[in-house]
Amino acid sequence: MNPSTRRIGLIALVPIFLIAFGTVGYMILADLPVIDALYMTFITVSTVGFREVTDLDAGAKIFTIGLIIAGIGTVAYTLTSVAAFLLEGEFSKILRRRRMEKQIARLRNHYIICGAGQTGQVVIEQFRKRELAFAVIDEDAHVVEELQKDGTLAVVGDATHEEDLESIGIRHAKALIATLSTDAENVFTVLTARELNPDLHIVARAFDRATHSKLRKAGANNTISPNELGGARMAALILKPAVIAFIDVITRAGETDLELEEVRICPGSHMVGQTLKDVRIPEKTSCLVLAIQEDGSETLRFNPSFQETLSEGDTMLVLGQAKQINRLRELACEPLLNLNDD
After folding, report:
1. Domain boundaries, the chain
2. Considering only the top CATH level, what class is 256-338?
3. What is the pTM of this model?
4. pLDDT tens figures, 114-136
5. Which of 10, 67, 68, 316 has its CA 20 to 30 A from that of 200?
C-alpha cells in the first residue's frame, strides 16, 4: 500500500473509530440498545442538539462532554487533513498515476526501459526524441515522479518481479532494455521478461565481461557494456582520430543533424521487386542508402549498387535528416496503386 492510500485510510478511520467508541460507551453507561446508542453518538458528535433518548446520569453526562470535545477535534483533524492532502498535490498525484496506468494498459508494441539511472536516462532521451511509445520501470519513487512530471509513462517497481513487469504491459511489448545497476538484476530481469514474452527483443547492459554469456543464456538478444564501448571509443580517438571525426561530422552536421536509421520495406510496398535505381530514393528523399539487410538475415550488404533488387521485409540502413527518413518510411510502405508518378 502506498503512502497516499495509507493516509486516506487513516483520515477515514478516525471518525469511524469515534462513532464506534461513542456507541459502545452509551450502550454501557446508559444501558441503551445499539440503534439508540448510535443515534446518541451521532447527535452528540455532530452537536445538532436533538432530544436525548433517555435521561443521563452523571457518568453518562461526563462521557457526553468528552465525546463532544472529541467530535470537535475529529472534525478539525479531518478538515485540515483533507485540505493538506489537496494542497500538497496528493490528489493530483493519484489522478496522474491512475491516468498513467490507463495509458500504459493501452500500449501495444511499445518499448520497456528497466532502470532510469544514467544509462537509462540516455535511452529515455533518445526515445523521446524519436517520439516512440515506451514505459519506464524503476524502484526509485522520486525518479519515477520526475519522469511522470515530464509526461513520461513510468511506474515504481522491481523489474525482476513478474507482477511489476505485467504492470507495464510486458506481454504486449515489442522490446525491453535492461539497464539496472547490477549484473544480477539484469540477468533476473531478462529471465523474467523472456518467460513472460517469448517474442520480446531484449537488450541488456553488462558490467562484467563474463556476464555477456549469462545474459544471452537468460534470453537477451543483445548485450552491451558501456565500459567496453567507452574504452573502445577512447582508444579509437587516439588510434583512428580521422574516422571518429568523420562519424561525428556526419551525425552532428551543425544545426542540421543527420541520423543513421533503419527503414523496413513493408508488405505490399511498391518497392518490392524494384531496384534502387527504379525507386529513386536519393531524388525523392535525399537519403543515402548505406546498406541493406535481408529479412531474417544478420548480414549487412554495404554500399549496395543501383541494380540491387529490394524484397519485402528488407531493412535499409540510411543516412539523412529526420524528416527525410520519415518520408522514406512513408514511401517504403506505400502500395503500388497509391504511388505517384513523381
Report:
1. 3-87, 108-229, 256-338
2. alpha beta
3. 0.62
4. 999 999 999 999 899 888 999 99
5. 316
